[in-house]
Design goal:
The protein has about 80 residues and is mainly α. About 45% of the residues lie in helices and about 5% in strands. The chain has two helices and two strands; from the N terminus they run βααβ. The longest helix is centred in the last third of the chain and has 22 residues.
């Protein structure tokens, strides 16, 4: 269940669908761990590009799950309403 707007780690994007850059330090930590895990997995390229692609897709799936769990509800947005 998405968190309230003031508690969300990842805010909804202003334009488009999805999430924007993290709003809280916990979100930045999640992004740092994601990038570090992606870099740490680069030796998997030697085992084959498909292995690294599968590893990368698994990391992205975990990142999206965390964004759903700790972010605002994603929705299509045309900008801020006044």
């Amino acid at each position: 269940m998405p968190l309230a707007k003031d508690e969300a780690w990842f805010p909804a994007k202003t334009y488009g669908w999805g999430w924007s850059v993290p709003r809280r330090w916990q979100g930045w930590l999640v992004m740092f761990v994601f990038i570090a895990a992606l870099i740490a997995g680069t030796p998997l390229v030697r085992r084959g590009p498909a292995v690294f692609a599968g590893y990368s897709l698994a990391l992205v799936a975990v990142l999206v799950a965390v964004c759903y769990w700790k972010g605002e509800k994603p929705h299509w947005s045309w900008g801020r309403r006044e």
